[in-house]
Amino acid sequence: MGTVFNAFWYGPPLNVFHWACMRSFLRRGHEYRLHVYDPVAAPEGVTLVDASELLPREQIFYFENPFTRKVDIGPFSDLFRYKLLLTLGGWYVDVDTFCMSRDIPDGIRAWAQENEKVINGAQMCLPKGDPLARKLYEECLAVSRNRALREDWGPNLLTRVIPSLGLPMSEFGSTSTFYPVDWISAFTLMLPSYSDEIRTKVGSALFLAAYQSFFQYCQIDLARTPPAGSCLRELYETLAPDQMTSTTYSTDEIISLVRTFLKNNRDWAIQLLVGSLGTRILDDLACNELALTLEETRDPEVEWRTKQKNESFVGFTPAILEAVPLFVRVGQPGGEVETLRLEPMDLQSGPRPLVSCVMVSRGNLQIAQHSVECYLRQDYPNRELIVVSASPDPEFEEFLRALEPARVRLIKVPGEFSLGELRNFSVAHSTGEIVCTWDDDDLFDPHRLSLGVHALIAANAGATFLIQLLMWYPSRKLLGISERRVWEGSMLAWRHVMPIYPALFRSEDSFVTNRIRARYPIVVLDEPYLYCRTITGRNTWDDSHFQKHFRSSQHLYADRSYDQAIRVLAERTPILEYAATLEAIHR
To answer: Contact 533/472 with Cβ under 8 angstroms?
Structure first.
């Protein structure tokens, strides 16, 4: 007998998809134990185990999934996974996983990244009583039942906990051996044109995660027969022909359902999909128009700019060098986009809302002082700066204490907290009607608050974001204008529209941005000079993350143009002082 694999099921009768997944383990000589609360029809050879031996039925809870608009057992299955790994040890696999290998060892530690950012738990192995299993189980119990994302009990928790223990993102497994097809690309299992490519990907894989949740989001019924020639059709015919139905999807039906899903979630799904499969997938789905995001919509600004005879310095137009019209794009939750031309703002026209600039800081004076200086240079008068730090340097504390007359406050929160939790502390201690993220290692133009508030109020939006910003890599003498996307870290929003940040160490702002965009109009500013993102070598993200952004930048300054751009920025920000500080640190 091969390796023992455990799985969990609670719900409707198993269909052909689940039978095919289970038989893929049996056909390769493994033992498959399905933990259930009620008897269920399963393939011959599958051992049914009473799930209540691990967790009593009374502990079952459901998640109200906003995508499917149905209750979801998924988060409870995550809890069950961690309990099983702790109590029994060995392998746990999701019921939507295909086994691709006979040779899979037991009694090891095994998990893997689905992609460069996320650890998935669809296939995990831990020894009985492993401290990691205990930590995951305890953390899962602590997750509030009111969380906004299904993934908060699964991938988000794994991605938060495992690195925090000093463990690698992948152990034994890898993306290619555990997750050769990622979640956003799961539908390609139903496209005949991708069959050869998928066969190549799974040729050396141990597992193929088939992500039934993605198909649910697309309203694709996995009990129906996939299109002829597709990879999933071949798996059905090979592993579970006796369970197949006569109702068959056509390729066009699958593409139509996927297009609808992408259209309804274009604010994040398109970018994720293109990042996985490249722009060719938009041609294959005949949905290039869906890639026309907020920043690409044709509007009067294009015509206005093309009429200008003397083009200003690239990346620093329009407002930094001359008085010109300010154009903004307003996106509605339904996807509609309109362009507004705003008249020059008058800061003396009357009282303006209090803006709380919220900074989460490591407490290093050398780095953070330059961001604080940018706050002091703002031309928007009604503002405050809230600095949250777990362990600020004494010099930093003294520096901030001297700035209390300028409405600068330090909030010390000793302890181990995720970046998302620290951001929640900063917002909780602020008093403004408007909240603006203010990272401690970046630089900001004096107009950042005034232009942002002006656009926010004039457009009657819930939040403002930059569609481009500057990326500065001082140690390599590189300055670039970023790719065009909604930059989460540039958010300036009404306090009442902001959800709670998830307890993540990274990507916590993506959740907040997506929630706001789904519910409120947002306005985007095409003024990259307002925000200069700085690569210091001590950022939350590593060097490869920023190199990827530089490769996709819209414009790059190097050599003489770099010096020219730095001189322009030096007139408005402490960039020369910051460069000297970083050089001294790295010397």
So the answer is: yes
pLDDT digits (tens, 9 = 90+) for 445-490: 999 999 999 999 988 899 999 988 998 888 888 888 888 888 999 9
The residue extents of the domains of the chain are 4-182+202-210, 252-292, 348-586
Residue type, 140: C
Q: Show Cβ contacts of residue 336 under 8 Å, excluding neighbours closer than 6 positions.
A: none
Per-residue pLDDT, 284: 85
Say if 4-182+202-210 and 348-586 have the same CATH topology: yes
Sheet hosting strand 487-494, strand order edge to edge: 337-342, 326-331, 522-525, 463-466, 487-494, 434-437, 355-361, 383-389, 408-412
**What pLDDT was estimated at residue 506?**
76
CATH superfamily of 348-586: Spore Coat Polysaccharide Biosynthesis Protein SpsA; Chain A (3.90.550.10)
Residue 164 CB: number of other CB atoms within 10 A? 13
**In the predicted model, is pLDDT for residue 318 greater than 50?**
no
Amino acid at site 149: L
The CATH code for residues 4-182+202-210 is 3.90.550.20
Beta-strand ranges (E) seen in 353-437 are 355-361, 383-389, 408-412, 434-437
Q: Which of residues 225 and 343 earns the better pLDDT score? A: 225
The encoded tokens of residue 404 equal 């209390």
Please give the backbone phi and psi of residue 466, each rounded to the nearest 5 degrees, phi first.
Answer: -90, 140
Residues 340, 447: Cα–Cα separation, whole Å: 19
